[in-house]
Amino acid sequence: MASLIDRLFGGREPSSSDVAKERLRLVLVHDRSNLTPELVEAMKDEILEVIARYVEYDREAVNINLTSVDRDSILTAEIPIIPDSRRRGVPTN
Amino acid sequence: MAARVITVTSGKGGVGKTTATANIAVALASLGNKVVCIDADIGLRNLDVVMGLENRIVYDLVDIVEGRAKLRQAMIRDKRLKEELYLIPAAQTRDKTAVSPSDMVRVCDELRPVVDYVVIDSPAGIERGFRNAIAPADVVVIVTNPEVSSVRDADRIIGLIEAEGKGPGHLVINRVKSEMVKKGDMLSPEDIIDILAVKLIGLVPEDETILVSTNRGLPAALNTDDQSRAGVAFRNIARRITGENVPFMPMEEETGWLKRLVAKVRGAENAADKIAAGPKPSVVEPPKKEIEEERAAARLIKPVMVSDNADGKPKAEEKPSNNEPVASAPTRSAESKADSDDEKPAVVKAEPAKIEPPAPKEDEKPAESKEVNKTPAASTEKKAIL
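Output (structure tokens, whole complex):
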């Protein structure tokens, strides 16, 4: 409740329970999938490497995340592909 | 008889497993069941002192397993209850390897035909002792506290018991301090359920009477007349284990001006309800004691959580999940709905005169019983369970 009021009356710092919840979420995602943050980073790099072989994507807008839904870990990847028309100086085959 | 074996575990130590085991066992017994508790914490036995039976130990679990004693000989009867409650203590001078998971299954199989419930107190950790404790389990109860380390460990345990085919686990959140939750300084029950995505079977408030009763070796749930909120919460857990639909008591303590205000509002509401509801449908009055307990609890707390229906009496004919062993807590999605629809009205209720039985309310006395379930509240709850 306190946190709700904080939110309503403009960005005061989150309550300690909010912080606890977020920290737990994060740590449990890694616990459940048995993937350390380093491994997730390595996996992201490799995924992007593969993607780059086929299309050009917007590096700034890439969003790859490990999340939990109920008790299942889900890897979501949002990788905006730059359309052909917008490409500049990219050789096409 | 075919007993159900309930294992109480947690991963992390010190969250109240042994206290929960003792109280659930006592509460199950006082509901008229024949109960045996087993302390599976070989080498660090404690269930005996918490239950106040430490002076009567002759044989222990390892003696049974190694054939030095018959099962019966190691079962210590708690004579304070007229119902049958027994303890099989752990050995103090041995370690966890003295017992194997198959030993535990064998001991429990021997007990199954002759008792109603076997309640096993698991040691902390996820090693041998934990494996021993969950091997015979039909239902696993996971105890956690509202803080990060025990919630994290609970998550690990939930994963392990699912992997063992013993899931889904049933969660007890112990030592909830409503004042701190209110201030945003303690994970709320909703937060924890949200994170762990598991069924809730009990919410136990932080309660000093637990320490007092442990000092005396009298589990808080033993005395059904007392005002121990934790004792009430443990008795509610036991009732849920037996398949009853017991609403979750809201956890927040009302203090000072707020309490007085709420009391006033409630008083006015009750009066209005009585008039609005007209003659009450013929309701079966729950035992007076029960009402007093619920009221005592309700006076001290106000909704943060979840509630299903108004009353908490069993209704076999309506229960959708009849063959489901343990009454499910509302699922997450239904929860918020139930929260706003049912429980809150006790405090904030604005819509007055609904015709049917008075809206679920802790303060509303005899109305809390079978009939109430046929109201919309009951249907909400059904959805929740489905």
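The domain at 4-241 of chain B is CATH 3.40.50.300 (Rossmann fold).
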